[in-house]
Design a protein that fits this description.
Chain lengths: 716, 495
């Protein structure tokens, strides 16, 4: 795994009145232990990966508490695991990245909600939307509404998030309904403090096991005729119970303000940004005091009609802050007020953007527009507008300085393949193949390999979801003269690609080329282990091998190629492209994730140096005198360790390529120099520390001969 | 309502640099002081070398037990950042462009070093953003700024960049956390304590002006003794000096003398034209071939440079492996013309020009490996008898003739014709592409104009455009477009 959590694990052990200091998602992890969960699972993905990572590393603590921890093969598997809480009074939590994970999980989720749960069931969903997001922008809220799940969106501070986990489990049990705790990306990564409680053991757990299985109860099956009754129970029993619980426990929060003819209803996750804006505009302070009354929806679904109507009644206008599209909350508020015949004006998506994050600018503009609409007010509108303008002026000034100095905009700096990444050479080979035979339809996929959509490779015709690369090309292949190339990571293969892609292709006698990047981990999310992981002593050994699996499924044309061997990869691709043989052609591009490999090798080398053993460290270099500054090598690689620098040749002014110190000597540069017949300026250096006596003596002899030869060649 | 205002710190870094470590040091130092603090980030996949930001708000005051807790923002806002840390100049400029560096309040701490963006690196010529322009952006933006090469400073201190940046943050004096608090935070974290503290102190001293960011080199780069060629103007003396040394090394003194002979024709031309011709001629006359590569690879001082680059200490062994793949072109370069022509004909017939070669890895730290290159380098005497030599010399003559006849019509156009030689460089496919582009521009544009004997006023600009087009994409798409526009009747007149 990419990160070690030893210090955090100590924090997870804290008892009553301890002080937890750290990241939001780890605070939530502590909170689920405080809530006495019996099992935890999920599928990794930013921003919630750390929840599972820390629990896998906290093996001892989990064993003490009897918590079963499972790395589910995908989100559907995780959602189905919550089925344990249908029949047994055991609490469980699973986590994944939304919206994508919720999409995958949705079949199991529907079947979970319909019969409902005895033990509290919680889904901790990483809401990856807004700045820095890596997935399509959709709302988890829609799933909560259509499946009658309760959605929690606590204020983004550690204590509120922790309280909501504890309340959430109780809400789940009080209403027999699973709950979703939606955490935005910045809330997951927020550093803060909260006061801890003792961890609790589940009444039944992997140590104190139940004597008997649950009895047969037809009503606990999501199967007709029980489903018809369950549909009614969801609305007639569970919904009112949830609304009562929300009121009784005060889960939604109300803050008074002196302008009581106005109000703001907001999702809990937006609270901090709103308070900050009120403070800057002179309508509040640093401690959350506000001139305008606030209703904070820490539970955005279900709404409590009485709370809404009471808050709005008697006010001239209320502003609704609801991120995302469509505006489910705002629609419901309109309906509720209409039915209650309350004439308060509602401002929402008319003053806020339909899509995108509610950041400082959006909220500032929204507040000014809202307050501008509801005059006459005691607020000095002009002063307000001046304060608000400051932000936009500063932004404008920034743009002005930038545009004034640069002829064209500064290009963005998207993420990319790491130094020495084993996936890069595969795209080098594809790029070279395209130079030979022309353009190729490339079905991209989710994973690190999606970085090939950025420069210098700029390839990929579609991205249809995690492990969906091959499936997304299934109707393209038959329409094109040239075969298609589909990409899949080993993570994507096990997550979904095996069934959705490979099986479907075989079953339909499909054709086409599939490249599976076998780097041994779910790398993009932090190098979690997958069924075909081989490295790592702290996990169970490899359970399933991709090559064997493909053979068993019936793949006939199958090659495993070391990724760094660009020439061989190019030959293999060319063969796959041109062979007469029909049927799916799979190339397993095999080499370990370089980040993981380097972490292991560096530790090994430190240890070797300590005991005086030989250590060989490779890297590449460039003879500046030979480089002519065309940068073909960079266009075929894009490695961060390949950079450029001033040309020291006084007759030339184009920058030369250089290999910077971060190079790990993966070998790609040498391979590219050969495969693409690039310039001979590259060289590989192996530095050998603690070399043996004989090796040193031989080196000494060589050096004297070479030194003599070189000396005689030295220009006078 | 309270008037307490938090301090806001924005860190702009790149994934994998450890910006999170810097954030955590500040947070843990604040916790030690009992200050309310909050920090957050949007790493996501940006952790993989992309631009990423970390944002901290803290109240530089310990609040009494049980007091109301402040509410901190999770997102930085334009014009409201007190301290902005950027580990790279373009990222600092990007932050300025987004309004995060305010002249009213922002203390800017930025490294002037560059990590080039992909489009800058991919360019076929020089695609870099001008350092001076970035400097202008940063100079205009901040309330106070500390701008220095933090990577060099870190290297000197034996620390990572973030430790140096942290020292500079302490020196701002606006966040209520002193140097000693940071030393305590680093010590508490317990990782690479000594080097991190060294970096911290170095950054602190640099920001306080107690220490220059980079030790100035004692001597300005030595200007080599220029043996004046008295009959050439002053502005080309340096170029001539470099050129003559280069050509003597490349072939011999006699060859170097022919260089001056070629230049004689241009001696009395426009000095700018003379300079461009002098430069390009020297480069063309020292064209890249296997012999030249071998010469460079066996230079006595090379192994010292490589050892230094790898950080090899005395006693460490170093093995150097070179990558060659001579193909039809490289081999025929060295053959006498008859043989070379048959080989090329064979290559063209069998589609072997681009797809054939002997992949070789040669260890130049072994005697046999070194000898291979040594012998190749010794083949210098043979070079004038080779096919490539004949081709190159003929091409050079033709190019000089073009420049010469252009100079009688329009000096600026002649300069552009001379500059066109820039397209011809490199080896293998790079060379072939350059040569192809050069020939197309010459045959389709330059030569027809010269034959017609009149250079329209817009032709110089157009020629420059074509040269840029030739280097704007490797597939020649842009050049095709430029040339087809020129070919369209009436376009020249219309532009």
């Amino acid at each position: 795994m990419e990160r070690s959590f030893h210090k955090e694990i100590e924090q997870l052990r804290q008892g009553d009145n301890g002080k937890f200091q750290g990241e939001g998602i780890l605070a939530v992890t502590k909170a689920i232990l405080q809530s006495g969960v019996g099992y935890v699972g999920g599928y990794q993905g930013a921003p919630v990966s750390h929840l599972l990572d820390v629990l896998f590393q906290a093996k001892d603590l989990m064993a003490e508490l009897g918590v079963h921890v499972e790395a589910n093969s995908n989100e559907a598997s995780a959602a189905a695991m919550l089925g344990a809480s249908i029949n047994y009074p055991v609490r469980g939590a699973v986590t994944w990245k939304s919206i994508v994970g919720t999409n995958v999980a949705s079949d199991a989720l529907s079947h979970l909600v319909s019969p409902g749960v005895k033990g509290g069931a919680m889904i901790i969903s990483g809401e990856d939307t807004g700045e820095g997001s890596s997935v399509i922008q959709e709302r988890t809220h829609a799933f909560a509404m259509k499946s009658s799940l309760w959605l929690l969106d606590p204020r983004p501070n550690l204590q509120s998030m922790v309280n909501m986990v504890e309340n959430g489990f109780q809400l789940s049990e009080a209403t027999n309904t699973p709950v979703i705790l939606g955490l935005r990306i910045r809330a997951c990564h927020v550093q803060g403090e909260f006061t801890t409680k003792n961890n609790k053991k589940s009444p039944i757990n992997s140590i104190d096991k139940a004597d008997d299985p649950a009895p047969f109860e037809y009503d606990r099956l999501a199967h007709p005729p029980a489903i018809y009754a369950q549909e009614k129970i969801k609305v007639e029993k569970r919904l009112p119970a949830a609304q009562k619980f929300i009121v009784d426990r005060g889960l939604n929060e109300f803050f008074d303000g002196r302008y009581d003819n106005l109000g703001i209803i907001l999702q809990g996750g937006l609270y901090n940004t709103l308070v900050n804006r009120l403070n800057v505009l002179g309508l509040g302070d640093q401690f959350g005091n506000s001139d305008i009354p606030l209703m904070v929806l820490n539970v955005p679904h279900p709404l409590v009609p009485d709370q809404i109507t009471e808050f709005c009644a008697g006010k001239d206008a209320v502003m609704v802050m609801e991120e995302g599209n469509p505006e489910f909350i705002e629609h419901q508020i309109h309906t509720l007020l209409r039915k209650a015949d309350i004439q308060t004006r509602i401002f929402g998506k008319d003053i806020f953007p339909t899509g995108g994050e509610y950041n400082a600018e959006v909220i500032t503009k929204g507040l000014v527009d809202f307050l501008g609409e509801v005059e006459p007010l005691a607020i000095d509108q002009e002063a307000l507008r001046d304060k608000a303008a400051q932000l936009f002026n500063d932004k404008e000034a920034g743009h002005g300085v930038m545009d004034g100095a640069l002829d064209k905009p500064l290009p963005p700096r998207p993420p990319g393949f790491c130094t020495g990444c084993p996936e890069r050479p595969v795209f080098t080979a594809i790029k070279m193949l395209k130079e030979e035979i022309g353009d190729i339809h490339i079905a991209a996929d989710i994973g690190c390999h999606a970085f090939a959509t950025y420069a210098p490779f700029s390839m990929g015709n579609s991205i249809l979801g995690y492990g969906m690369g091959l499936a997304s090309a299934s109707a393209v292949g038959p329409m094109l003269k040239k075969r298609t190339i589909s990409i899949m990571g080993d993570g994507g293969f096990w997550h979904n690609g095996l069934q959705s892609g490979v099986l479907s292709n075989l079953f339909n006698q499909g054709d086409g080329i599939l490249i599976i990047m076998q780097n041994g981990y779910a790398s993009a999310t932090g190098q979690q282990y997958i069924p075909s992981s081989t490295a790592g002593s702290d996990t169970t050994p490899m359970t399933s091998e991709i090559e064997q699996t493909l053979k068993a499924l019936g793949v006939k044309w199958l090659r495993t190629v070391r990724t760094y061997g660009v020439s061989r990869m190019l030959d293999t691709l060319r063969e796959a492209m041109t062979t007469e043989q029909t049927g799916l052609k799979v190339i397993i591009a095999d080499s370990e994730c370089m980040l993981a490999r380097q972490r292991r090798i560096k530790a090994e080398n430190v240890e070797k140096l300590k005991r005086g053993a030989e250590v060989i460290v490779p890297r590449f270099g460039i003879d500046e005198e030979i480089c002519t500054g065309d940068h073909s090598c960079i266009r075929l690689s894009g490695c961060p360790s390949l950079s450029i620098k001033d040309n020291s040749d006084p007759l030339r002014d184009e920058p030369v390529t250089e290999v910077i110190d971060s190079c790990v000597g993966c070998g790609l540069c040498g391979e590219v120099a050969h495969a693409a017949q690039l310039c001979p300026s590259f060289y590989r250096v192996e530095r050998i520390q603690n070399a043996g006596g004989l090796a040193k003596m031989m080196a000494g002899l060589r050096n004297s001969v070479i030194g003599w030869l070189a000396g005689s060649e030295r220009p006078q | 309502m309270s008037d307490l205002k938090p301090v806001k710190i924005l860190i702009c870094a790149m994934g994998g640099e450890g910006g999170g470590v810097l954030m955590n040091w500040i947070v843990s130092a604040a916790w030690r002081k009992g200050y309310p603090v909050q920090a957050t980030s949007v790493p996501g996949v940006a952790q993989r070398t992309g631009a990423t930001t970390y944002y901290i708000e803290l109240l530089p005051e310990a609040l009494p037990q049980g007091a109301a807790q402040p509410v901190f923002a999770l997102i930085p806002t334009a014009g409201e950042v007190d301290v902005l840390v950027a580990t790279e100049a373009a990222e600092a400029a990007r932050a300025a462009g987004n309004g995060f560096i305010s002249p009213a309040r922002t203390h800017l701490i930025a490294s002037t070093s560059r990590v080039y963006l992909m489009p800058e690196k991919m360019a076929m010529t020089d695609g870099r953003v001008d350092d001076d322009k970035l400097a202008v952006i940063l100079a205009k933006s901040a309330h106070k700024s500390v701008l220095f090469d933090a990577h060099v400073a870190a290297q000197e201190a034996g620390a990572i960049v973030n430790a140096v940046m942290l020292g500079a943050v302490a020196a701002t004096g606006v966040i209520g956390i002193e140097l000693d608090d940071f030393i305590a935070a680093i010590t508490q974290e317990g990782k690479a304590v000594e080097s991190n503290i060294a970096g911290l102190k170095s950054g602190y001293a640099i920001a306080n002006g107690e220490k220059p960011a980079v030790e100035e080199p004692d001597n300005v780069i030595a200007i080599s003794e220029v043996s004046t060629k008295s009959d050439f103007p002053e502005n080309v003396q340096a170029v001539l000096d470099h050129a003559l040394k280069r050509l003597a090394d490349y072939q011999n003194e006699v060859y170097a003398a022919t260089y001056l002979g070629h230049l004689e024709n241009f001696k009395d031309c426009d000095p700018e034209l003379l300079k461009v011709v002098a430069r390009q001629l020297a480069l063309r006359m020292s064209y890249e071939d296997i012999i030249r590569v071998a010469q460079a690879k066996i230079r006595a001082e090379r192994i010292q440079r490589i050892r230094q680059e790898t950080g090899a200490k005395p006693g460490d062994l170093v093995i150097v492996t070179e990558f060659f793949k001579p193909g039809v072109a490289e081999i025929s370069d060295l053959l006498p013309s008859g043989m070379a022509k048959s080989l090329i004909a064979w290559g063209e017939k069998n589609n072997k020009i681009e797809n054939f070669g002997f992949a070789m890895e040669v260890k130049t730290t072994t005697v046999t490996g070194f000898l291979k290159l040594w012998f190749l380098a010794k083949l210098k005497w043979w070079r004038p008898k080779s096919y490539r030599w004949q081709i190159e010399q003929a091409n050079i003559e033709d190019w000089l003739d073009l420049v010469d006849s252009a100079s009688t019509l329009n000096v600026n156009f002649a300069i552009e014709v001379a500059e066109l030689a820039r397209l011809i460089k490199g080896y293998g496919s790079t060379y072939r592409r350059g040569m192809r582009n050069y020939s197309r521009i010459v045959e389709e544009f330059v030569r027809p104009l010269l034959t017609a004997g009149a250079i329209p006023s817009e032709a110089t600009g157009q020629l420059k455009h074509m040269r840029d087009a030739a280097t704007s994409d490797p597939d020649g798409v842009t050049l095709d477009k430029e040339l087809s526009e020129i070919r369209t009747p009436g376009t020249i007149a219309a532009e």
